[in-house]
Amino acid sequence: MLPKPLQGIRVLDLSRILAGPWCTQQLADLGAEVIKIERPGQGDDTRRWGPPWLKNSQEAAYYLSCNRGKKSVAVDIATEAGQQTLLALVDHCDVLVENFKVGGLKKYGLDYASLKEKKPDLIYCSITGFGQDGPYAQRAGYDFMIQGMGGLMSLTGLPDDEPGGGPVKVGVAFADVFTGLYASNAILAALFQRQQSGLGTHIDLSLLDVQVGVLANQALNYLTSGQVPGRLGNAHPNIVPYQAFATADGYMILAVGNDAQFQRFCQEAGCPELAQDERFVSNQERVANREQLLPLLEPLVKKRTTDDWLQALEAIGVPCGPINNLEQVFADPQVQHRGMELKLPHPEAGEVRLVSNPIRFDGQALNSSSAPPLLGEHTEEVLKELLNRE
User: Fold this and answer.
1) In percent, how much of the chain has pLDDT > 90?
2) Does domain 10-214+338-387 have CATH number 3.40.50.10540?
3) CATH architecture entry for 242-324
4) Quick check: 252 and 321 in contact, CB under 8 A?
């Protein structure tokens, strides 16, 4: 296999929690050397966000999820010596990633304006809740509140008038993870741009901007129609039937994407006449008449088991699937075949189980070969190599 695409790129990572570390873990998997700067004795907050903890270790699972492949260097940024160390490290780095409050690094001489004069080809990525300007710029931003402010929770959950109705957040930190991915994409673009210009840039990424940006078809549903979308539970606003259905022994997802699939489903379900009914003959009509269609389909689906439906519908090309818990996910033969569980050696636990990077180059998953580092594990190594300090 060829060298990893970012081999030779060095990243100074001043971020913590999730959005920034998710970005820099992606860069590490792609081959960059990532130097994670942590406060001595404390480190990234997520090291203590447990339980659960890695066996024989005080590393929280949360921390392990987003720090693979990095080198941990313990430096106290609040001291003059620590600031001088970081300034010296900047000279040896291509990229700096930080998620301090707006202006929070200026007093240390580590803001973009100061570092641009020192190193004009530096790519500097700032991740904040609300961006570098605007009326909310000084506010702290956290994923949960961003999911609410950015509209996602208005679309997630059951309608207010149904039992259990009300806004619900997504079960993972959606805004943080997407912001990390946007950040890594932006950094890759800036590295390419630097090849032409020789200059760095300041990347300004906001959790709120990202949350609004990934509203996708729902945002366009509103901007196109002027109608505010509501919560539909597991149903789809633009496709019917496209939701979870109760079966004889559980649930399944039925994802009918076109009229031909609907016809085949109705044939298998023993109701071919529904596919010819003028109320349901096209997806446009099915969306308009979902309240009439769903009560007709639900009792039919409930007559058969989930496995029975999955086998039958797969055989005729109608998209469907189970609703797996995480034990079932990692036991799934396709997930196992693709190697989505990654095991790496760990100095305290012996081994740590992680989730693989889903990117593959030439059939090989791009994963760093080293586990998330212990606090300060690489301090001496990095300072000696880059700054010639014993």
Assistant:
1) 99
2) yes
3) 2-Layer Sandwich (3.30)
4) yes
Please give the Cα distance from 47 to 41 (Å, whole number): 11
- Which amino acid is it at 219? A
Would you say how long the chain is, in residues?
A: 390
pLDDT per residue over 19-53, tens digit each? 999 999 999 999 999 999 999 999 999 999 999 99
Are 10-214+338-387 and 242-324 in the same CATH fold? Answer: no
| Start-to-end CA span in the chain (Å) | 36
Q: Name the pLDDT band for 390 (thresholds 50, 70, 90).
A: confident
Which listed residue (160, 176, 249, 332) is catalytic?
176
Domain ranges of the chain: 10-214+338-387, 242-324
In the residue annotation, 176 being an active-site residue is answered as yes
Q: State the residue for tokens 């100061």.
A: 114
Backbone angles phi, psi at 180, to 5 degrees: -60, -40
Asked whether the beta carbons of 111 and 122 are under 8 A apart, the reply is no
- Helices within the chain (DSSP H only): 19-29, 61-64, 80-90, 112-118, 143-149, 152-155, 174-197, 207-213, 216-225, 259-269, 272-276, 283-288, 290-301, 306-315, 326-331, 333-337, 379-387
Peptide bond into 333 cis (omega under 30): no
How many other C-beta atoms are found inside a 10 Å radius of the C-beta of residue 304?
17
Give the C-alpha separation, 67 to 373, whole Å. 7
**Residue corresponding to tokens 């539909």:** 232
